[in-house]
Amino acid sequence: MSIKQVLQQPEIGAKITVKGWVRSFRSNRFIALNDGSCLANMQCVIDFEKEDEKQLKRVTTGSCLAITGVLTESKGKGQTVEVIVEGFEVLGDAPVDEYPLQPKKHSLEFLREIAHLRPRTNTFGAVFRLRHALSFAIHSYFNKEGFFNWHSPIITGSDAEGAGEMFRVSTLPNGTDKDSSEDFFGKETHLTVSGQLEGELGAMGLGKVYTFGPTFRAENSNTTRHLAEFWMVEPEMAFHDLEMNIDLAEDFLKHTLSYVLEHCRADLEFLDARFADEQKGKPTIERADQGLIEKLESVVHNDFIRLSYTEAIDILRNSKPNKKKKFKYPITDWGIDLQSEHERFLVEKHFKAPVVIYDYPANIKAFYMRLNDDGKTVRAMDVLFPGIGEIAGGSQREERYDVLKEKVAAVGIPEEELWWYLETRKFGTCIHSGFGLGFERLVLFATGMGNIRDVIPFPRTPGSANF
Ligand code: 4AD
Ligand code: MG
Questions:
Q1: Where in the chain is the domain with CATH 3.30.930.10?
Q2: Helix or strand (DSSP H, E) at 216
Q3: Cα 356 from Cα 346, distance rounded (Å)
Q4: Which terminus of the chain is more exposed, N or C, with fewer CB under 10 A?
Q5: pLDDT greater than 90 at residue 243
Q6: Which atom of ligand 1 is nearest to the CA of 393?
């Protein structure tokens, strides 16, 4: 039985066996056992006088035990029930002088170096249980809304997205003078940066699809928001215009966050306290005005602000930090790309709410976005979240064959590479839209963690691919 099951329906007086890892062993008497099923430990009370001394010595922080005993109401503070130990078996030792995780506070940086062991801490247990719950909520949301889970390929033969630098996939030996026609696939191939283009092909037959898979970007971005390997959720819907796309993104984000508010209470309360504690160490101006749970609730219960790129530029141009030259990238002319400092100003200072910006200048966005009648903006949208910046981005897609063909040519993609994409516009084209959500950015937001490397089990970043 898992500790979670025992605690949910405690059968006082029952003889049970629990298996897990020792978090601490106090006074030769109290073992705090954690099995990862939930945040709570099971307190196991041992009568050391009755136990073999040699076996007792093996009960150390990090060791793995199977404990059998009787579930009893606890008189102690901090738990309602405990196990009175009748017998235990050491399944795996953890030598005290070598085991790096001791019952004390370790820095997140240190824990990143021992990412193989960090799932055994309260913080990472909570983060990864929440990551699972968000993933489950995403699948259940789309299933309920009539979407089909669509598996886009991970190895791609087209460099179409233009979303960033790609990793090459090849079986040719190093230093070979053979060209890519002799390579495994007979052409140059890469790890995908997005499943969108193939997602669109699915939507044009199945109506509503979503991908949820790993994506790869070889950009040298060493920030707390970027990974070289991250998971992306990409819904794509036929017969949806941009407004319907934004409505879906808002409803979807609210649904997944309210799911964890409802189902992950203990972990969220733990992370909420961790977040509050972390804020205390920050200078006053950098401190968040809301606690973690409060922040999640406010996102779930309030409308997202929606404004066009042009309106956003006006607000930013007239803003205090712009006038006082506080932005690293001053807002000058219409047409410039928004930097994260601008996004954060809008979300955290000006509106104090999630913001959706739409109708961006065509030349700062991807070729497949639908051109507006003004000829200079496209039906793009970005969802910006407090403390995160861009959490999702998408668009209504260009469905007109001639316009798309022209745009493909203008960005210099050979038509032979995208013939299949263009054919969906030639045969039975229709208005359609979609967006991509960076899953780790959602986990970051929901857990209140400060660094994206701490919300994926084994982060891949420039110069680092350990474990
Ligand atoms: O804005 P992006 O590049 O958009 C696309 O790839 C589109 N094809 C999506 C679509 O319309 N179907 O990426 C989408 C999201 C971003 O909003 C961000 O949350 C996340 O993916 N993202 C990253 N997350 C972690 N590390 C990175 N290096 C990321 N790059 C983008
Ligand atoms: Mg984007």
A1: 119-454
A2: strand 208-216
A3: 10
A4: C
A5: yes
A6: 17
DSSP E strands, 60-207: 64-73, 81-92, 148-149, 155-156, 168-169, 189-191
pLDDT for the residue numbered 285: 82
Query: What is the rounded average pLDDT of the residues 206-214?
Result: 98
Domain 3-104 architecture: Beta Barrel (2.40)
Tokens 């407090």 locate to 386
Pocket test for ligand 1, best of 227, 357, 441, 464 (most atoms within 8 A of CB): 441
Token pair, residue 431, equals: 């208005």
CA dihedral 251→254→256→258, nearest 10 degrees, is: -140
Please give the CATH architecture assigned to the domain spanning 119-454.
2-Layer Sandwich (3.30)
The pLDDT score that the predictor gives to residue 227 is: 98
97-125 pLDDT, tens digit each: 999 998 889 999 999 999 999 999 999 99
pLDDT tens figures, 54-98 = 999 999 999 999 999 999 999 888 889 999 999 999 999 999 999
267 Cβ closer than 6 Å to some ligand 1 atom: no
The tokens of 307 are what? 């404004």
Q: Is the CB of 459 under 6 A from ligand 1?
A: no
- 441 CA: nearest ligand 1 atom: 19
